[in-house]
Design goal:
Structural class: alpha+beta
Strand content: 15-25%
Shape: flat
Number of strands: 2
Oligomer: single chain
Number of helices: 2
Radius of gyration: 10 Å
Distance between the termini: 15 Å
Helix content: 40-55%
Amino acid sequence: MKKILVVEDESIIAMELEKHLTEMGYDVVGRASSGVEAIEKSFVLI
């Protein structure tokens, strides 16, 4: 399964993205609301 980190500053949109990506077979490993937060989380997820 492919892993993905959703980066979106609008929480409702992020939840919808996560839902659709999960339905498409992706493993959503987290959400971030900014690029900086995404980079920080990506180091923890590795």
